[in-house]
Structure formats: C-alpha cells, structure tokens
Amino acid sequence: MKFEQYAISRKIKDSLRELSFVKPTDIQYKAIPSILKGEDVLAIAQTGTGKTAAFAIPAINILYTQKRSSSFKGVRCVVMEPTRELVIQTARNFQLIGKYTNISILGLFGGVEQDPQIAKLKKGVDVLIATPGRLFDLISQGYVDLRALQLLILDEADHMLDLGFIDDIRQLIRYLPQKRQTLFFSATINPEIKKLAYSLVHKPVRIQISPKDPVSKNVDHYVSFIQKDDKRFFLEQCIKNNAEHKILVFVRTKVRAERVKKAMGRVEIQAETIHGDKEQKERSAIMRKFSSGEIKVLIATDISARGIDIANISFVVNYDLPDIPENYVHRIGRTGRGTKRGNALSFCSTEEKEILSEIETFLGTPITIISLDKYQYQETIESSHAVTHDMQALLRDVESFEEIARKKAKSKKKK
Ligand code: ADP
Ligand code: MG
C-alpha cells in the first residue's frame, strides 16, 4: 500500500510526495494504523528503518485533524530525545512532514538562549521536541503547560528509560494527564526496560520487526584484532583506502577523540571531533559540515551513536569498542540507512576481547573476523605516513650528521 491510499490528510500526503516517501517502510506500515487508532505502541525496529516518520506521520495527522481550541495555548505532543542533535533532526522531520499543516513545532535543548524558546511557547506549541534537561528547566519555571497533552513519544526509548533518564521521565509523567497516548520507539530493548515501558502505558500494542538480529540488514560488519598502540596506523589505512567516503569513527572518551584527531593530523588526514565538551554552536556546525561532506572524517563519542541520520556515511569504524553492548548496534547503524548499504569495522585489542564477547552475546551471533597475518599487520604499520615520515627524518638526520662529520674531518686536515 502506498501513502496515497492512507487515511491521512491530503496535506501530509503532499509533503510525503515531496520527500519522495512513496511507500511506507515495514515499521511505518505496521505502526501508523495503530497510532492513528489511538493505541499505545511499543515499536522495535532496526536502525535506519524510518522510525521517525513512523511516529511523526500519525502524530501530525492526529494533531491536525483534531484542531486545538483557540483559547488553549498548551503543548499537545511531547517527543523526548537523548541528545540535542536528535532534537534538531526530529524537529526537522516534523517540520518537513507537517509543512502544509499549520502544526507548530518547537525543538528545545540546553546550551542556547532560552528567551526565544519561551516566546514561542507563549504563542502555543503543538509539538515540543526536547531533551529532558531543558524541558524540566522550563516546566519548573512555569513556561510549559502540559495539562492537555495528547501524545507522549519516547524516541530511543530504551535509552530514555535507562538509569540516566528514568527519573526525569517519571517526573515528566507527573505533569501529564492520565488519559493520553504513549509511544515508544527504539532499535534495541532489553526485557527489564520492556517491563518498565509496559508499566507506563495502557494496553500497549507491541510491534517488532526482525527481533532476532538487531543489526540492520544493510550493514556488513567485521572485527579485526589490532593492538591498542597500533590502531592509529590501521585507521590511517582505512581512511586512505576510502578517501572519497564519509567515515564516522567512534572512540571511548572525549580525550581519546582529540588524541586520535591529532594522530590523524600528523599523517595529513583532516578530521573533526564531536563530543559533549563542545559548545552547541560548534557541534551544530560540525554536524552540518559532515552532512555536506565538507568534513570526510568525524571522530565521535557515543553521544552521536544513537539516531543520527546523515546521508552517505559509508563506513563506521569502532576505534574502541563500546562499553555498552547495545551501543554497538546503534553505532554501526549510522551507516546502511534507508535503502543504502554500509560497512563497519571494529578494532579489538587484547584488552577489549571481553567486551567483544559481551557484544556478541547481545547480538546472539559472532561478528565476522577479518584476520590479518603478521606480514600484512607489519606492512600496515610500516606504510604509515608517520613511519615513512619518521624514516625520512631519520635519514635526513643521518645525512646531516655525516655532513657535519665530513666538515669536521676537513677542518682537521687543514690544521
Ligand atoms: P530510524 O529512526 O529508524 O533509525 P530514520 O527515521 O532516521 O530511521 O530514517 C532513516 C532514513 O530513511 C531517513 O533518511 C529517512 O528520510 C528515510 N525514510 C524514512 N521513511 C521513508 C520512506 N517511507 N521512504 C523512503 N525513505 C524513507
Ligand atoms: Mg531514530
């Protein structure tokens, strides 16, 4: 069935056509009718399968067809996201899909001035897309009226219900009417979190696509065993072998991100970093440049592992393995989105073998190994620009040393 045949507003169909969304993806096909019926939904579908539109299309339709009364200025739909980048991205999706409706949309996150956000809230906002932090700030200052909220959506739901966020979510729910529709969307979920999710809703419809393999079908992923100190040589090789491609590199910490960037700089590879220590303006600028392809190599911490939808990332490198097994799925899910295919390679050091087996347990299957024989391994290190560069420098040193020695010998002779 095509979107044209859906029981949704003409105005939404027109914007979907402009986006070249002709047919629903599997998760959209399954989730949209239930949401339109007003049911609570817990939807699990792999990365890059179009979960955003799976909730945005029916949410906009509900809000558009059930008009708000002119005196009411409260928020009608809240979408929770774990990061500011995802707030921006999801707000953009809502804006594009709701382009011909008069639905008002606001993305809310910290690190920017709050006055313009408050001004918009005062005018009346239909869909508020937010990270928990700034949302609570504004709720506690009395700027957000949630008393008539119709829809609560948790994107990256397992993460939003996990330790770091669950208290925030519980607190938020206290402000919401009992009678509301709640939607959970995620690529991964564990049984404990699933139970918790069910406890927050009424008679949910559970929708799960390909539950067995959480990794997107579009991603080919491999692991190589590489010692910690050698990883930079292999990253250099990966980048040089894929010079035309956009590569996203994941590391464990902010400090490592900067260190790897420097190591790449020394071998004349331009890279940028993104992590929680950077100002919002800078983070947004870097994301824009990476999206446009101006930056080809982006080194990121796990803050960019979830949800980010950037076209044409052809390669994900796990320079360090993720501490949390499900983040493996989210990280490599930054490639192979929509109908595109993608590749991912993980560098596993001896110290990380335990984490690797935890990831494989989570996936329910081993990751294909690309084994490197001793010769290949050594050659990668020796062909590094850093090594050849050092060798050249060393040779130059030797030459100049010999030169000095010659000169000395000459002057001795004269005497
Ligand atoms: P997920 O949240 O499942 O990881 P997204 O919602 O970010 O995935 O969507 C992944 C990509 O698929 C986006 O670039 C989006 O524009 C595209 N997409 C979504 N739905 C459709 C559709 N019905 N037809 C074509 N492309 C789609
Ligand atoms: Mg998503």
Q: What structural keywords apply?
A:
binds magnesium ion, elongated, 2 domains, seven-stranded parallel sheet, alpha/beta, 15% strand, Rossmann fold, binds adenosine-5'-diphosphate, 415 residues
Distance between the termini: 98 Å
- Which ranges are low-confidence, i.e. pLDDT below 50, for 5 or more consecutive residues? none
Structural class: alpha/beta
Main sheet makeup: 7 strands, parallel
Cross-sheet strand order for the largest sheet: 3-4-2-5-6-1-7
- Overall residue-averaged pLDDT value: 92
Number of helices: 16
CATH top-level class of the largest domain: Alpha Beta
How would you classify the quaternary structure?
single chain
Total domains: 2
Residue share in helices?
40-55%
Quote the CATH topology of the largest domain: Rossmann fold
- The value of Rg in angstroms is 26 Å
Under CATH, the homologous superfamily of the largest domain reads: P-loop containing nucleotide triphosphate hydrolases
What small molecules does the structure contain?
adenosine-5'-diphosphate, magnesium ion
| Element order: H for helix, E for strand | HHEHEHEHEHEHHEHEEHEHEHEEHEHEHH
Can you describe this structure?
The chain is α/β, with parallel strands linked by helices and 415 residues long. It has two domains: 3-208, 3-Layer(aba) Sandwich (Rossmann fold); 219-391, Rossmann fold (3-Layer(aba) Sandwich). It is 45% helix and 15% strand. The chain contains 16 helices and 14 strands. Helix 3 (51-65) packs across helix 4. It binds adenosine-5'-diphosphate and magnesium ion (MG). The site of adenosine-5'-diphosphate (ADP) has 15 residues, from helix 3.
